[in-house]
Amino acid sequence: MMGNNISTGTGFVVNTAKGPALITNRHNVTGKNNVTGDYLSQQCYIPDEIIIRHNQTTIGNWVDKSEIILEDYNPKWIEHPTLGERADFVAKLLSNLSDDVKIYPYDITTNQFQMDYLPSDIVSVIGFPFGRNAGGSLAIWTSGFIASEPDIDYDGLPQFLIDCRSRKGQSGSPVIAYRSMGFNLHAGNWTGLLTGPTEKFLGIYSGRISPESDI
After folding, report:
1. How far apart are CA 185 and CA 198, in angstroms?
2. Could you give the C-alpha distances from 205 to 9, 125, 169, 175, in angstroms and in order?
3. Which of 118, 122, 160, 205 is deepest in the core (most CB within 10 A)?
């Protein structure tokens, strides 16, 4: 509903052939649990607008822009081409940008190292737990461990589990494997010695399997 603050979440921007797009969880735009279909708010609100906090052209400043996500009950987002609503992430092409907005898209090709990532390896969830930030509007890094085999689908979908003290508000966060310089990383059948920080994008955080669990 217009004007009602339902919840907060996380997302990130990527460049597409049609322009910059916000990537976030599907349940962030539907207002419903993506597995059970239950409403996420006690008032059973369905969001029709999201407010995105963008970087301004001057570093350290931010500006809020609204994006319509539901118009005449028709979704304005794009779902997975084959999994559809089963996949808990969507893309929303950004239409409300101005000259004072500076887009810093996530580039998964930048400084990517062909590292293996296996159960017990460290990963980071970069987002806004409980809507909080790390100063200004910078995200908070929460670290955890891979908790299932990444190459084996969990619950019939191309997803894997992590053991991480993540909380509400981090839905839609990028999950990355970040390694600083000096770490030895296995890549295939060889080991690499890093001379500087590197990262690998692994996926999108979508929530916990239970409110009592950190998985």
Report:
1. 11
2. 11, 7, 11, 6
3. 205
- In the chain, how many domains are there? 2
Q: Which two tokens stand for residue 210?
A: 């239970």
Give per-residue pLDDT as tens, 12-44. 999 999 999 999 999 999 999 999 999 888 778
Q: What share of the chain is helix, strand, coil (3-state, %, to 5)?
A: 5, 40, 60
Answer whether residue 98 shows pLDDT above 50: yes
CA–CA gap between residue 149 and residue 169 (Å, rounded)? 26
Residues 50 and 86 grouped into a single domain: yes
Residue 3 vs residues 6, 49, 169: alpha-carbon distances, Å: 9, 9, 19
- Res 106 pLDDT > 50: yes
